[in-house]
Each structure stands twice: as C-alpha cells, then as structure tokens.
TrEMBL record:
TM region(s), chain numbering: 6-23, 35-53, 59-81
Entry keywords, A to Z: Cell membrane, Membrane, Transmembrane, Transmembrane helix, Transport
Superkingdom of origin organism: Bacteria
Keyword Hydrolase: no
Protein name in the entry: Multicomponent Na+:H+ antiporter subunit F
Organism: Brooklawnia cerclae
Ranges for region Disordered: 104-123
Primary localization: membrane
Family: Belongs to the CPA3 antiporters (TC 2.A.63) subunit F family.
UniProt membrane topology term: Multi-pass membrane protein
Cellular compartment(s): Cell membrane
Length: 123
C-alpha cells in the first residue's frame, strides 16, 4: 500500500511540473488560470498523500485552506476576466488566414461574428 502512495506522490509531482509549463506558455490568461487551479488541486493531493503516509491528521486545516483558495481564486479570475475574440487564443496558419474574407480583415469595418451571415440568410 505504501508503494501505491509513493507512486501517487510521484505522479502528482510530475503533474505539477507539467502544469508549470502550461502556466509559463499560456497562451491566454484563462489557460494560466486553469493551470493555477490544477496546481492547487495537485497541492491538495500531495497533502492528502503526505497525511496518508505519515498518519498525521493535523494537516486537515491546510487542506481546507488550499481548497478554499483554489475555489476563490478560480471564481475571481472567471468573474473578472474579459472575453477573448474568436480565434484570438491561438495562431492561425497561412491557409486559415487566406480563408478569412477581406471584410473581416479590414480594421475600419465593424467586427462581424463568423456565424452572422448564416443568421441573415435564415431570416
């Protein structure tokens, strides 16, 4: 049973390392927010594994604090983050840029939702 706990601890540490890469790369702030939430969840998991390995129950308040901070942090970020434009979250390939109509690339033209033409045809 102790071997399983050490394997879980190693998996959580690897997950935290991979999440650090996601936090650094982004590309958007919401990706970073999700990475921070996963990091908090992994920290809770590590504390649970340490509690199971050592038999300590005095770390329970730490779990409550980690869970509360993770929940409140995610809620605050979701509440105050701005919505991104469609397609802004990633880089477009040359083929995708060539497929965009000129009217959408013109900076003076008002922004048009990609599905707006479908709605106009239906009415």
């Amino acid at each position: 049973m102790i071997t399983v706990l050490y394997i879980c601890l190693g998996a959580l540490v690897v997950a935290m390392a991979l999440v650090l890469v996601r936090l650094e790369r982004g590309p958007s702030n919401l990706d970073r927010a999700v990475g921070l939430d996963v990091m908090t969840s992994a920290a809770v998991g590590i504390v649970v594994v340490v509690m199971a390995l050592t038999g300590r129950v005095d770390l329970l308040p730490l779990l409550v604090v980690f869970a509360a901070v993770g929940f409140l942090g995610s809620t605050v970020i979701a509440r105050f983050s701005q919505a991104e434009a469609i397609g802004e979250g990633r880089m477009l390939s040359r083929e995708e840029v060539a497929a965009i109509p000129e009217s959408m690339l013109d900076e003076a033209a008002p922004p048009v939702h990609p599905d707006a033409e479908d709605e106009e045809d239906a009415s």
